[in-house]
Amino acid sequence: MTPQHARIAFAVFALVAGGVTYNALFRQDGTNRKFGDEPSAAGTAPVRKERAEPAKRTSAVDLGDATDATSRDTVRAIQRQLKKRGFGSIPSDGVLRPVTRAAIMAFEHDNALPLTGEANEDQLKRLLLGAPAVPAVGKAGEVRSPHAEAVIKLVQRHLGERGYRAGAADGRLSAQTVAAIRQFEGDQGLRATGRISADLLSRLQERAPGPSANAER
């Protein structure tokens, strides 16, 4: 190889080496990197930094509680109306405890409505207007919701624990359950209605005595 050819080869080599160096230092680490990519270790691809998703806000109304602000207001208003109309001494705290559902069921029973134990805008309208303002689906006294079934099961279990023959804790208001409720109400000095109510459930949840001596009749 002549000295001239050697100089040309060296110049070409230097040009190529310079291009590779420029590409490695600037283009690969700068302009080709997308926004949000993190620099990576030498010889590896850039690490993509994922943008964190904002936490989703959730609100729900549990079977035994009201957590949504609007639902709490509705429940609180229903509780006030129930207490005002004599359906039990229940707190106006916006929390749907079984005793509140029992008071709602007593109101539904007295107004020939299906038993739901539910607190909603339709129920509030009925209470405020003093009549079934909103058509209800189902027959009078028919158990129409899992909430009502849960309250009835609770009453049946309490009655059974105290020696009253309420039948199986199946959430149904059978004739046997109604008769046991009447007997318990009589033993407690309450008006014998045979219905689910806040007063009934409150007494059952206390350490009340068992059936009277004439319970077998």
Description of the structure:
It is a single chain. With 217 residues, the protein is mainly alpha-helical. The protein has 2 domains: 46 residues, no CATH class; 137 residues, no CATH class. Helix content is 48%, strand content 2%. A two-stranded antiparallel sheet has the order 1-2. The chain starts with a helix and ends in a 12-residue tail after the last helix. The C terminus is likely disordered.
Relevant terms:
48% helix, two-stranded antiparallel sheet, 217 residues, mainly alpha
Number of helices: 7
Q: In percent terms, what proportion of residues is strand? A: under 5%
Let me know the largest β-sheet: 2 strands, antiparallel
Averaging pLDDT over every residue, what do you get?
Answer: 76
Strand order of the largest sheet: 1-2
Distance between the termini: 127 Å
H/E series, N to C? Answer: HEEHHHHHH
**Secondary-structure content class:** mainly alpha
- Overall number of domains: 2
**Dominant shape:** globular
Uncertain segments: 28-38, 40-44, 52-63, 213-217
Care to count the β-strands?
2
Helix fraction bin: 40-55%
